[in-house]
Amino acid sequence: MPSDPASLQPAERHTQAPIPPPITEPLQYPKYLYFAYGSNLSPSQMKLRCRVNPTHSATPLAIATLPQWRWLICEAGYANVLPPPGLRVANQDSETAHKIPVSGSEDAVYGVLYQMDLGDERILDGYEGVDTDAAGAGAGDGVPVSIRPRVQGDGSYNKWFVEADVGTWLDGAEGVRAGLENGEGKVPVLVYVDENCVKLAGPKFEYIARMNRAIRESLDLGVPAGWVEDVMRKFIPRE
């Protein structure tokens, strides 16, 4: 089983557990939070993945939404999100993508926010199969470079930087809230987006258990049960 994320095929990158090299540099926190919407909704999984500073990076800070985004299981067998009209590139603006239904009555994607150390973010890039050598995105791609700094390239997911609406701050998030919230309940977030896979599909078998754990733990944190039933349970069967 390959242990280097860069050597994995796109569909495999989500199922393997790459072993990161030891990182001894000082802890660093970016000026944005990580918006988890798939199996990383589970703090338990985040603790296993974040090797640099798991106590900090895997602590859930808030429940938030991406308005007018859409949640799906794509043909790769994993969770994905579709940006709203006006922020779509390539396959995201295809007839196939237009078949993705609105995500619940709220027309939004719910997620859990974490503040990851930059070392842990690099580890997560490996799990998500980010092509760190991909070319920079051009102004003609239709999405601001501030939101989408690079093209997806050969990666399974790309890194997007947008604003999320915070619904509930969790215990212990006071310092982060004071430093990042803009006064209107919005915070800058990192979202991993697969720009290529936008076809509705079922989950890979191994993903079902991880998503059920993610659902259980996110419900305990405050993700609305009605939204989970209306959106996620259309794709993720109960165990």
TrEMBL record:
GO terms for molecular function: gamma-glutamylcyclotransferase activity. The active site is at E128. Its EC number is 4.3.2.9. Residues 1-23 are annotated as: Disordered. It comes from the Eukaryota. Substrate binds at Y34, F35, A36, Y37, G38, S39. PANTHER family: GAMMA-GLUTAMYLCYCLOTRANSFERASE. This is gamma-glutamylcyclotransferase. It comes from Penicillium italicum.
